[in-house]
Specification:
Domain Iron-binding zinc finger CDGSH type: 43-86, 87-124
Strand content: 15-25%
GO molecular function, one term: 2 iron, 2 sulfur cluster binding
Helix content: 10-25%
Protein name: Iron-binding zinc finger CDGSH type domain-containing protein
Number of helices: 2
Pfam families: zf-CDGSH
Order of helices and strands: HEEEEEEH
Largest sheet: 2 strands, antiparallel
Number of strands: 6
Strand order of the largest sheet: 1-2
Length: 128
């Protein structure tokens, strides 16, 4: 019974650490867990912008996928569950014909494509 409670408590602590962006490494030599900070890296489904035509203004909250796992790119479908990623929520304040949301997930102007990050990624990977 005590062992089961300890296991459940440790599992909860691990989950909280993962959600906070920390990684746990077990140190067998000292019989302890070392906790380190890490930055999760998203999957980049598209190296370039993803266009949304006729977006709704004010009355719709969009959820931009920040992990890259969504099957409904560039918007979130909940595939981030179990990771430290969270969708970026936003609404539009003014009317526009279309939006260009980031497909590489590494933009500096979340959730919009900054036009440079994907170009740099393409160059590094040898893509045109």
């Amino acid at each position: 019974m005590i062992r089961m409670l300890m296991k459940r408590c440790f599992t909860v602590q691990l989950k909280e650490l993962e959600e906070a962006g920390k990684v746990v490494k077990l140190n067998k030599q000292h019989k302890q867990a070392d906790v380190e900070q890490f930055t999760p890296i998203p999957t980049s489904p598209v190296l370039g912008p993803i266009k949304i035509e006729d977006p709704k203004v004010s009355n719709k909250t969009y959820r931009w996928c920040s992990c890259g796992l969504s099957q409904k790119q560039p918007l979130c479908d909940g595939s981030h569950q179990g990771t430290s990623f969270k969708p970026y929520r936003f609404t539009l304040e003014q009317e526009t014909d279309s939006l260009e949301l980031c497909g590489c997930k590494l933009t500096k102007s979340v959730p919009f494509c900054d036009g440079q990050t994907c170009v740099n990624l393409r160059k590094q990977s040898g893509q045109p």
